[in-house]
Amino acid sequence: MVKIEKELEVNEDSVKRMAESVVQMHEKVVCVLEKPSREIALDIVQGDDFINHLEEEINDQSVRSLALLSPVASDLRKVVADIKIASELERIADYAKNIAAFLIKSEVLEENVMAYAAAMEKRFIEMLKETLKAYEQRDVKAAFQLPKKDEGINQLYEELKQNLLRHPNETLVVELFEISAMLRNIERAGDHTKNICEHIIYMVKGQHYDFG
Length: 212
Description:
It is built from 8 helices and no strands. It has helices spanning about 1-35, 40-70, 75-105, 110-135, 140-145, 150-165, 170-175, 175-205.
């Protein structure tokens, strides 16, 4: 019993370390959106390799726990949840990388676009941080409530798209598809954070829940 508890603790520490790094990537995205910096954007892109390494480490630790320690049901759920949460975090890191890559190759976007994107990112980061706190505290109530925050991110996304469509700047209208694709990364990051809430509920309660 002591052995499995130690393995679970090691795994959770790795998940937390991965989560902190993912949050930092998105915080850097906000910095680049508010004050364009090719250096910081490149740092975000390069940081994705570290996240991928951590996911592999968590998966290896989890497989070792499953293979050697025969965990009971609640411990088994914890191992499975950590694997899934690590996978979600890896995707969320990819979205930060995608935004940074877009900003590296793009000319400076209109201030209105950058402001909306930064606002979306800030709301997303707040949601992600609170979700990770729910993971640490095994807070099922918060895990049920937090997915509602994703609606605010989606609302900003749709609002900006409509503003661009009405915008007199023909260049921005032509670039609408690429700008929308960049912003979709933030929207999808929110979706994966909702998935983490689902995994928290499963980990604690053993119940499968789908926030859609």
